[in-house]
């Protein structure tokens, strides 16, 4: 018997890394994906039962609900003949129509997890010192405009093959990122507060008054849902554009991008 | 004039909250690769668990619509690892009970519901689950009270109720429906608490079951409606046994001749056309709780 030949191993190297995100921040960041997905799907199914954005019944479709109208308009544009046009949006973005009881139970379950998740996220921000990178600063407005200008120019300059340098960034996030990452936790807090205002409008009467009225809280809750949902698209696009290192840093916590070593 | 000694300057607010410059640290490349592998595996595991959990928690109706060709097979697979429909119901009922417990902990018997001016009244949708009771069912109407300290069963009519000497009350409060709409209405009637003073419940009673035997389903067939009400809510100063809406006797669609108005509870607890109230120690069944809604419904 011969001993197994040791596999040739590349010699280990020491490389510089930057610690980016606390483990709790990473965990809660990813937990938000299924939680928000479920909260929106159940929330819209609850919304179906009594829309807050409504109008007098349409003489043709009989619809009173702007969300149903949107479905009707989309099916008309796409010549979609399958299913009830008024249910188009609810069937695609929610649990579906006529499932209020099930949607409510699931919404409460996920909402409690979402609140716990939010608290853990803040704990992670404090424990890892990450909160400092999120705070707005006076230079944010001009820097954010410079970033928007940069993003608008990326594709034209790529086509014309002209150089288009990235504006200098001397902090963890650029001003646009910082604005978004600072706002999202606030929207998260607002969606929870408006949720409680609707859920317990008697015991939390002061909270309901903060949103002016019961329907005020419903409108804010719906608006927060739209903001949280529409944040995802540019977020994912920009992470892909930024490269694998950014994505990996949200899973492993470290980055190979050391400032002053090539990357701005 | 003596010069004030210069105070030693601490860091300014901006400096204290300022972002610290990123510092790099040396790390073993092999160690990083190992850690990266572990973290990506954990990430994949988490994603798989989330996907399985999401499938498990979806209502059957939604599953059948989303994946009509595979939902049965996926459900069979999920049930093998314990993600069965029965377990799902248990978890979701648990979430509902937890939320009810939170609501009960928040409840304060002294906390009043906001009252409105009469000018703030809004249209009130009848929203009967089925059809409203038939006018004939009101001719022999009476309210039966049982589970009383006296051990008797009382049978009250609107006339005998009026003779009890209970002060009539008026209040303009809001009804909040589980569906999400709300409406302000002017109610008139008797405080439930006052009736409980005249007819105290038996010792140990913590609950009331309120029933409407004249309720009907959507096809017009008789279908009793029943709610559970904790006596703390029954004794809340704004909980009424209402006989009037907007200054006029209750119409059939709004629960003639007598209904519960408990503004600290969702509309579905505000049972219309009450015919029986039973006081008891155990929590009674509740019509909408049997259909998957909360049984506490506190606002």
Describe this structure in words.
Chain A has helices at 23-49, 66-78, 88-93, 100-128, 131-134, 140-159, 175-199, 205-210, 214-242, 244-252; strands spanning 14-19, 254-255. Chain A is mainly alpha-helical. Chain A folds into two domains: 16-130, no CATH class; 139-257, no CATH class. Chain A has a two-stranded antiparallel ribbon with strand order 1-2. Chain A starts with 13 loop residues before the first strand and ends in a 9-residue tail after the last strand. The model of chain A has no long low-confidence stretch (mean pLDDT 87). Chain B is of the alpha+beta class. Chain B has two domains: 33-103, no CATH class; 110-291, Oxidoreductase, molybdopterin-binding domain (Sulfite Oxidase, Chain A, domain 2, Alpha-Beta Complex), CATH 3.90.420.10. Chain B has helices at residues 13-17, 29-57, 60-66, 71-80, 85-106, 158-162, 192-198, 231-234; strands at 24-28, 143-146, 154-156, 168-176, 182-191, 207-212, 225-230, 240-245, 248-249, 259-261, 276-280. Chain B has a five-stranded mixed sheet. In chain B, strands 4, 5, 8, 9 and 10 form a five-stranded antiparallel sheet that branches. Chain B is extended and about 90 Å long. The N and C termini of chain B lie far apart (67 Å). The model of chain B has no long low-confidence stretch (mean pLDDT 89). The chains are: A mainly alpha (264), B alpha+beta (299).
Structure characteristics:
heterodimer; A: 264 residues; mainly alpha; 2 domains; two-stranded antiparallel sheet; 3% strand; B: 299 residues; alpha+beta; Sulfite Oxidase, Chain A, domain 2; five-stranded mixed β-sheet; 30% helix; 20% strand
Trace the largest sheet of chain A across and list its strands.
1-2
User: How big a fraction of the residues of chain B is strand?
Assistant: 15-25%
Task: Quickly name the level 1 CATH class of the largest domain in chain B.
Answer: Alpha Beta
Q: Total strand count of chain A, please?
A: 2
The CATH superfamily of the largest domain in chain B is identified as Oxidoreductase, molybdopterin-binding domain
User: What is the percent of helical residues of chain B?
Assistant: 25-40%
The number of strands of chain B is 11
* Computed CA radius of gyration of chain B, to the nearest angstrom: 29 Å
Helix/strand class of chain B: alpha+beta
Approximate helicity band of chain A: 55-70%
Largest sheet of chain B, in brief, is: 5 strands, mixed
Strand content of chain A: under 5%
Distance between the termini of chain A: 56 Å
Strand order of the biggest β-sheet of chain B: 3-2-11-6-7
- Strand/helix succession of chain A: EHHHHHHHHHHE
The radius of gyration over CA of chain A amounts to 24 Å
